[in-house]
Amino acid sequence: MKFQGVDEDHYVWSLSASEKRALIMIVEEFPMLDGSLRPLSSDATPEAAEHNQLLIEALAERRQQMRQDARAILSAEGTFQKQGPKLKLRLKRSEADCLLQIANDVRVGCWTRLGSPDPASVPWWELIGDNAKFGFLLDACGVLQMQLIHALRRAP
């Protein structure tokens, strides 16, 4: 996936068919985090627990809406266009922001499922074992986030 520039009000990338499949796979794995990793507060009262549960439910609803939005973005006519052997991906800023949030959720979720490894101290191939999918997604999300952040620094 390579950023090509800005075209009217769209950011444009060139990508391969396998990179498109990886992007779709990332969206399909979302949401990976359930939002219940940390309580809203350390307060142990029933009221605090109720507030925490309401927050978890609201975040879950928002994540499901984001997944539906991302599916709609990726299946919309004109999002992917054939460009020789490659594809051209065109996204509005809001669409790129949505995919950036999704990629972050999936990347952190994969990192958590792999045991929160320190990549500087352990080779990634030793971390994967039975979790090859999570290792692949961790890397794919990192590349996607890097490309989206690079592009979003430019104003369309």
What's this, in brief?
By secondary structure, this protein is of the alpha+beta class. The chain has 5 helices and 4 strands; from the N terminus they run ββααββααα.
Description:
The protein is of the alpha+beta class and 156 residues long. The protein has one domain. It contains five helices and four strands; from the N terminus they run E-E-H-H-E-E-H-H-H. Helix 1 crosses helix 5. It is globular and about 60 Å long.
Keyword list:
156 residues; 58% helix; globular
Structural class: alpha+beta
Major sheet, described briefly? 4 strands, antiparallel
Mean pLDDT, all residues: 89
Number of helices: 5
Determine the oligomeric state from the structure.
single chain
Number of strands: 4
Broad shape: globular
Would you identify the regions where 5 or more consecutive residues have pLDDT less than 50? none
The percent range for helix content is 55-70%
Radius of gyration: 18 Å
Strands side by side in the biggest sheet? 1-2-4-3
How do the helices and strands follow one another from N- to C-terminus?
EEHHEEHHH
**How many domain modules?**
1
